[in-house]
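Journal club prep — side note

Before the paper discussion, L.F. wants everyone to see what a predicted structure for a comparable chain looks like in C-alpha cell form. Sequence:
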Amino acid sequence: MSETTLENMQPNVNIGIVGHVDHGKTTLVQALTGTWTMRHSEEIKRGMTIKLGFADGEVWECSDCGFPEKYSPEPVCECSPGSKPKLVRRISYVDAPGHEILMATMLSGAALMDGALLVIAANENAPQPQTLEHFLALDILGIRNLVVVQNKIDVVSPERAKESYNEIKKFLHNTWAENAPIIPVSSLKRVNIDALLAAIEKYIPTPKRDENSNPLMFVVRSFDVNRPGTKPEDLVGGIIGGSIIQGKFKVGDEIEISPGLQLGNEGKYEPITTEITSLRFGKYEVEEAKPGGLVAIGTKLDPTLTKSDNLVGNIVGKPGLIPPAISDLEFEYHLFKNVVGSKEEIKVDPLTKNEVLMLAVGASLTIGTVSSFNKETASVKLKRPVVAWKGLRVAISRRIAGRWRLIGWGLVNR
C-alpha cells in the first residue's frame, strides 16, 4: 500500500486496553503499535498509567496465507517473508489506567471504546479487583466486543499458564463474555501478537458509523503543545483530543465546545467557539475527520485554555447544534448487589437523599447530589453540568472507605 493511501486512511475503530494495574497493558500497546503511551512525567516516575494513553496501530495481512502479520517495524510474515502485505485496518488503542484510584479515568475513556482487550496477567490469580471492576464497566457501558489477553506467559511455567487459563474461564463462566477468545501472549517478548491481531479482526468489528448527522465529539484530552520559550509569533493554538461520535469535521469549520469554561466561582459555564486549524490521527494530518479513531483537533484557542486537560469532558459540535448542557440529571438506575473493585465483600446500600455520587456521563465525569429518587429513577443536582441526551449511559460510583467505587449504572431519561 502506498504511503499516500496510508496517510489518508484514518483509524476505523477504537479499542480499549483495560485490566488490573501492572498486568502489562501499556507494554501490550507498545507491542501492537510500537508506541509507548506512558509519557506524563509522573507516569514515568511512578511506572504506572495515570492519564488515558493513545496510540494508533495497523493490521496488515499476508498476501499468501491471509493471516495478520507481525509489525516490527515493517510487516513481515513467517510463512513468506517476501510476501506483499495488504493493509486491512487502522486501529486507535485507548490505554486505560488500572489502579483503583484511577477508575474514574478509565470510565471516561470507556465512552470512546468500540471494543476492548481485557488484559489478565498469568502470574496472578484471576480475577484481581480491578479486572472485575473494568469488566463490569465494559458491561454497563455496552461494550460487548471483547478479546481476553492472557499476558506474561513468559514468566510462568506451562502448568501455571494452564491454571491461569482455567481461572479466566471460571471468571467468565455464565457472563456475557463466556465465549470470548482467550489469547496467551508475552507483550514484552512480542509472542503471539499476530494471533491476537487475528482475534481482534474476528471479534471486534468496525461498527456502522453515522456520518450524516450533526457532528459531535467527546473530549478526553486537551493540551498545549508549545514548548517553554516559544516566541509569540510561533505559538500555536490549543489542542483538543477525543473521538467523533457522529458526523464529520473539516479544517476551517467553526466549532463550539460545551459546557465550556466556568465563569468565576458562580458554578456557571459558558460554551467556547473557535475554528479548526488542523486534524491529526497519530502522525497523519487530514483535511476531514469522520467517526472512528482518536483525533487531535488544532484550534485557534488560547493554549492556556486547553493545557493540563482543562477541557476534558466537553462535547464538540457545530455552533447551536449541540444538545443543551444540563445541571439537573434525571436517569433510570440499576444498583449492583455488591460494591465492585473492593477486596472485601461490601453490600450496595440503596440511594439516599442528599448523598454525593460520582457520575460518568459519556466521557464526562461530574459530582452530584441526589435530590430525589424512587426505585427506578433518580434526579441528581450536578456540580459541573454535562451535555447529555436520552439513552446516554451513566456509570454510578459512591465514595466508600476513601475511594470512589462502582455501584451501578443508568440511562439518561432526558
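L.F.'s comment for the group: Residues 158-172 form the longest helix (15 residues). Keep this in mind when we get to the figures.
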